[in-house]
């Protein structure tokens, strides 16, 4: 249905970004070690809705997301749609909260439909690929020097997703 233009299809989730870098591996010599600072403290939480065409609707917070914040985000998203839209979400507690579930009928009236994935199946949510690419490929080492660098780098990547950064599905 999405391929034929009948609906818009989005994959949604939240991700956490902090000053502890995500480096799965790196080649280095004994003489030229790669050192990255690691710090706890401030963090950024991103909630996003992504299409297979690399469209991204997102919000970044320096606090945690709760049901009210997620509902507000979804209400803002509902104002942007112009045809039947399906959002695929996992079964995290924030997505299954009573407050969130109580909004489903209201969103359905606005042609916004929420579809929940089967439990324990993050591989079916394509936005997980976005979070992984940002953390492991697109954020440069300098992002972890200080919180402002992380914030600036993450904002740059998110704003340029679909332009400079993309995923081919």
Structure notes:
The chain has 169 residues and is of the alpha/beta class. The chain has one domain: Nucleotidyltransferase, domain 5 (2-Layer Sandwich). Helices cover 28% and strands 21% of the residues. It contains five helices and five strands, in the order βββαβααβαα. The chain has a five-stranded mixed sheet, sandwiched between helices. The two termini are 16 Å apart. The model has no long low-confidence stretch (mean pLDDT 91).
List the helices and strands and how they pair.
Layout: E1 8-18, E2 43-50, E3 56-61, H1 67-78, E4 85-89, H2 98-101, H3 104-109, E5 112-116, H4 127-138, H5 147-159
Short characterization:
By secondary structure, this protein is of the alpha/beta class. It is built from 5 helices and 5 strands; from the N terminus they run βββαβααβαα. The model has no long low-confidence stretch (mean pLDDT 91).
What descriptors fit this protein?
Nucleotidyltransferase, domain 5, 5 helices, alpha/beta, 169 residues, 5 strands, five-stranded mixed beta sheet, globular
Shape call: globular
CATH class: Alpha Beta
Please state the average pLDDT score. Answer: 91
Derived structural class: alpha/beta
Helix content: 25-40%
- CA gyration radius, whole angstroms: 18 Å
- Element string (H = helix, E = strand): EEEHEHHEHH
């Amino acid at each position: 249905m999405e391929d034929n233009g009948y609906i818009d299809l989005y994959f949604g989730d939240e991700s956490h970004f902090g000053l502890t870098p995500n480096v799965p591996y790196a080649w280095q010599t004994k003489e030229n070690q790669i050192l990255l600072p690691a710090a706890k403290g401030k963090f950024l939480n991103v909630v996003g809705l992504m299409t297979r065409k690399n469209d991204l609707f997102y919000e970044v917070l320096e606090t945690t997301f709760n049901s009210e914040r997620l509902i507000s985000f979804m209400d803002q998203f509902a104002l942007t749609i112009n045809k039947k839209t399906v959002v695929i979400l996992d079964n995290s507690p924030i997505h299954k909260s009573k407050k969130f579930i109580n909004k489903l009928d209201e969103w359905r009236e606005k042609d916004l439909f929420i579809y929940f994935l089967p439990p324990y199946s993050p591989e079916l949510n394509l936005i997980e690929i976005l979070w992984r690419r940002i953390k492991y490929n697109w954020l440069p080492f300098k992002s972890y020097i200080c919180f402002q660098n992380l914030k600036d780098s993450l904002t740059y990547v998110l704003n340029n997703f679909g332009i400079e950064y993309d995923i081919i599905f």
